User: Fold this.
Amino acid sequence: MSYLPEKKHILASGIFNQTLRDWQGLNCALTAKNFMYPIFIIDNENEIQPIKSMPGVCRYGINKLKSHLEPLVKNGLSSILIFGVSEKLPKDELGTHADSNENPVILALPKLKKWFPNLMIACDLCLCPYTSHGHCGILNKDGTINNAKSLKRLAQIALSYAKAGADIIAPSDMMDGRIGAIKQILIDNDFGNKVAVLSYAAKFASSFYGPFRDAAKSAPTFGDRKCYQLPPNSSGLALRATKRDVEEGADMIMVKPGLPYLDIVQTTRAHFPEYPLFIYQVSGEYAMIYYAAQAGVIDLKVVLLEVLTSMRRAGADVIITYFTPQLLDWLANKSKI
Ligand code: PB1
Assistant:
């Protein structure tokens, strides 16, 4: 008598066609609203600068933004995350140009709001693109972080971005207490119910940020960021950081990087089911997939969709990804991907 699996052990009856397979994980569906597009805005108004370490990704001068974003908005783009890149503006200890009138983010915001009134605009908030030392906070003379001065400076910049038209402030600096400081200055200036805070809550000291630091010209001039970004081996700290940021008033939370930290995503989802949860698929993850596909060892679309599905399965609501333009194009040309 050959072995017959028990009736409930026959899985093939639940996956023998695409609809059945779709039903096994509708909560992992990928739509345009699940993607946030990170974009670099450089202080050279009429330039488009391809980024060598991130093929297909460019830095855009303000006068090139509209034509770049128009087709994406037409394809369903619903949110962007903007990063200022300072090529001409001088960098100093305090990151003075992070919120000066010449800052590309400050200059771009009112234009973006006018061109695309329904596009949600998040502003990355950090000092590293604007400080001479390249760290994410203000430093003491001995090169350590001065947390109090960093919080005051970051809150000032957050207010400037809010005044310029930001819908969301996304502090990627990882200074202790910056969420509370930002929320306070927004509330004190009548932006408490007009600007959201997306916290890079569980952000790790990852080796996957290299291409970004090339793109944003934001690498530290000495040392590293291990004293303020989470150690990759920590999971308790990730939960403590997210709990703290939620208590300080974060409206949305994030895990970053994505693929190497899906365990953290799943745990964060379980502990904070009431908060929109973002994953940042960072520059190194982008480059890894891009170059593997270019080398012909993987199929870009199939592998990218599998990776993004794993991020949704782990619990992410929104994925910040440099692949957004390609994904929107695939979505626009087919009812689903
Ligand atoms: O795509 C990426 O690698 C994102 C890098 C990220 C941007 N928020 C930061 C990581 C880093 O360079 O340490 C920038 C920190 N403010």
About this structure: The pocket of PB1 is lined by residues 124, 126, 128, 136, 172-173, 209, 212-213, 218, 225, 282-283 (CB under 6 Å). Strands lie at 35-42, 48-50, 58-61, 79-85, 120-125, 168-171, 196-203, 252-256, 277-281, 318-321.
